Amino acid sequence: MSDAAPAIAEPAVRPDSRPEERGGVRPEDVLARLTRAIEAARTLGIPVDRAEAVRTDAAARLGFPADVYVLALVGGTGVGKSSLLNALAGEAVSPVSVRRPTTDEPVAWVPRDARRDLDELLAWLNVSQIREHGSSGPGAVAILDLPDIDSIEATHRERVEDLLPRVDAVVWVTDPEKYHDAVLHDDFLHHWIQRLDRQAIVLNMSDRLGPDAVPKVRRDLERDLATRFAVSGRAHPPVIVASAIGGPAELSELRGWLSAQIEAKRIVRDRLVATLGATLNGLAREAGVDPATAPEPFLGPGPRRAAMAAVTDAVLRALDLAALERQAVAATRARARARGAGPMGLVTSTIYRLSGRQARVADPDRYLVEWREHGSLAPAVDALRRALTEPIRAATPTVRPALAATVEPIEVRRSLERAVDGAIGRQERAVPSSRVWPLIGLLQTVATWAIGLSVAWIIVWILARPPVSSIDVPVLGLIPMPFAALVVALAIGYALARILGLHAGWVGRRWAARLRRDVTAAVQRELTDRALQPLDRLEAARHELWSAATGPTTERH
Predict the structure, then answer these.
(1) pLDDT tens column, 476-533
(2) How many CB atoms lie within 10 A of CB 239?
(3) What's residue 1's pLDDT?
(4) Where do the structural domains in the chain lie, given as residue ranges?
(5) Is 415 exposed, middle or buried (0-12, 13-18, 19+ CB in 10 A)?
(6) pLDDT over 90 for what percent of the chain?
(7) 3-state per-residue secondary structure call for 502-548
(8) Residue 316: which of 420, 162, 471, 408 has the closest Cα?
(9) pLDDT value of residue 343
């Protein structure tokens, strides 16, 4: 191994110290929060394939030894990545050629004594070209020379984009001709700056610039980076000036930065926390929530109450509770007639029942069961849809379809129907009775017998002319006793019938009012519990996603 190999300092922090011991954020905790967020995002209809891939990669990365990490050299064609790696190594690690692109597969530079620890990690990265070196300075660090990001071969760029989420630190290599390159700035730095915690921009081939031009180009690049990434809320990566052919002095700044990155465990955990945190924040943005502020509900308390009131009113109109009351009163009177109208009441009740009239006008149970035939739930569906019109408009484009699906007419109607059926099914609708009715029925039986005897007496009197007494009635004069008895019996029967009807009506109206209250309360309860269940699931998922994204996602040392 040449003396030009980087003399990287030993780590300042004990290798076996844990981030949580130094007040850091455990990537395992952030990984658990991402798992919660993914499930919530799936409920909200947010695509989670990328987040799933990040979670899978992070879980796999945590399974490797904690004291190994991977640093990647990334750049465009001809910026001298391979030459830079060879200069750092002091030997030909990665091939250099005038043929472009040269690097079509990642090349790994690894310390010989850490090869066994790094082999499994490199296999996971699908890196097969491995060059060993004898320096012990870097520790268990694999430095990768990646394919060119602006290569005409699409597979080269795809390979880089596949590896970037899995490496632990990145050196973005450019040169005096390409430091403003849009592919580097717009396609790569802009996308990855938030997701990689350890990174630097290396201005290679500084030997092509004059001594006065180097500071100017560095400042120009720093201003450009600061402008481009001011919106990210994070400082841009440091700009390092280097030259692969300028000798050790021209690499001292880069070697110094590499020395600062040597604490492998911290680098790996920082990178995982940053990547997981960026993914969490991305899901939160898709859901339209700010991790710093609790999300406002889609439907606030006031609008929610107003919506439920409108829906309930529309459902109750569909049930036609006024008709239900008439059915209840008629059913009560029918029962009273059967129990308190005497022998004639039994006859009329039987005819009333067998004719089917009682089922049509005096059966509240059947009326409620067949409620769909009495009215439409369309106004109730429209009331709920109107309530969510503005929340749907205000939702993010990603969440909007799931929110709109909560008021899809067919599903809303089915939900309302289930709610009404549930409310009706739990109601006790036994027709009430009264202890008074059998007594009235007994008196009606006596009155009926009296009428019958009076009629028989009249027939006998007409046919046999037995002597009978008479009653002197004003205006009418003398009335034979058989006729007088008939009139009295009829009057008593009529009076008893009226008393029975009035009492049955009073009992029936009380029952009908109670039935109406019970049905109304049950419908309101069922609608509250069921009608907005799909919306409540989205609310819960969004709050869960926000809760998962509110935790710290940056290591603190």
Answers:
(1) 778 888 888 888 988 998 898 889 889 988 988 888 888 888 878 887 777 777 788 8
(2) 21
(3) 36
(4) 68-261, 301-531
(5) buried
(6) 13
(7) HHHHHHHHHHHHHHHHHHHHHHHHHHHHHHCHHHHHHHHHHHHHHHH
(8) 420
(9) 78
Considering the entire predicted model, what is its pTM? 0.64
Number of Cβ within 10 Å of residue 305's Cβ equals 12
Asked whether the CA dihedral 232, 236, 237, 243 is positive or negative, the reply is positive
533-539, Cβ contacts within 8 angstroms, sequence gap of 24 or more: 533/415, 534/405, 534/406, 534/411, 534/415, 535/298, 535/299, 535/388, 535/403, 535/406, 537/43, 538/43, 538/44, 538/298, 538/399, 538/402, 538/403, 538/406, 539/297, 539/298
And the tokens for 265? 């465990």
CA distances from 506 to 170, 200, 432, 441, 502 (A): 87, 89, 11, 18, 6
Residues of the chain with pLDDT under 50: 1-23, 97-101, 554-557
**Cα separation values, 203 from 182, 218, 221, Å:** 15, 8, 9
Which tokens is 155 given?
Answer: 């597979």
Distance CA 498, CA 518 (A): 30
Residue 98: per-residue pLDDT: 42
Q: Where are the beta strands (DSSP E) in 134-229?
A: 141-145, 169-174, 199-203
* Direct distance between the N- and C-terminal alpha carbons of the chain, in angstroms, rounded to an integer: 35
DSSP, collapsed to helix, strand or coil, labels residue 557 as coil
Residue 523: closest CA among 306, 387, 321, 300: 321
**What pLDDT score does 431 carry?**
83
Q: Do 288 and 550 touch, CB atoms closer than 8 A?
A: no
User: 270, 420, 438: which is closest to 338 by C-alpha?
Assistant: 438
Structure confidence at residue 194 (pLDDT): 58
DSSP codes, 253-308: HHHHHHHHT--HHHHHHHHHHHHHHHHHHHHHHHHT--TTSPPPPSS-HHHHHHHH
pLDDT at 185: 61
Residue 64's SS3 state is coil
Q: What is the pLDDT at residue 75?
A: 82
- DSSP element (H, E) containing 76: none
Query: DSSP string of 365-415?
Result: HHHHHTGGGT--SHHHHHHHHHHTHHHHHHS-TTTHHHHHHTT-HHHHHHH
CATH number for 68-261 (one of 3.40.50.300, 3.40.640.10, 3.40.50.720, 1.20.120.80): it is: 3.40.50.300
